[in-house]
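Write out this protein's structure.
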Amino acid sequence: MTSTLRLGVLTPSSNTALEPLTSALAAAVHGCSAHFSRFKVTEIGLSALAMGQFDDSKILAAAELLADAKVDVIGWSGTSAGWLGFDADRRLVERIRERTGIAATTAVLALNELLAIRGIRRLALVTPYTADVQQRIIDNYRSLGVEVVAERHLDISVNHDFALVEPDRLKALMREVAASRPDAIATYCTNLRAANLAEAIESELDIPLLDTVSTTVWGQLRAAKADPSQVRGWGRLFQWH
């Protein structure tokens, strides 16, 4: 690895949580910095309009702007593949590589890799989403052989408002799903202020917290051949290889 490492991060336009969290995560790695490119996302739902926000052409245009900064890896810090299907992110990663020549990953692909590495089959899910979106996510994980044994969702569809959910509320939801003794808890949305709760919640519940802002950075470090274990104080996942 060179003395500098630039993480390029694709960001929903109405997100306010992931940029400060991702920058703090990047700062835990010597010589690492995070750089962001936005594309328009304002609503999460299953309507044609909401689903159309994740058209690859818009995401690829944002990725090309990151390429101008000569980033070392591009990560899509969003969870849309949870309801669109995991193949959506697999295709996106390949198209980013083809278009920019830069290694790429996503929040969801990195999370799924972590589940496979640790053999996690019982997952608890905490999201701000609506019931229909949540069910799509649950169904897609079942197809991977991962059972969502407990879930909580907040029935919010306005993307900007996800960041307004107080961390204490998120911790309360995590405690509720922990009663089912899952192998891990996923906070599945990159506009939640949850990543920085990992150390405290893991200490309290003795259950790993897999936050999707954190999984994006974990996946990017892996793709850039950097050691994720350099990140300390952000949860157990960064010590998993």
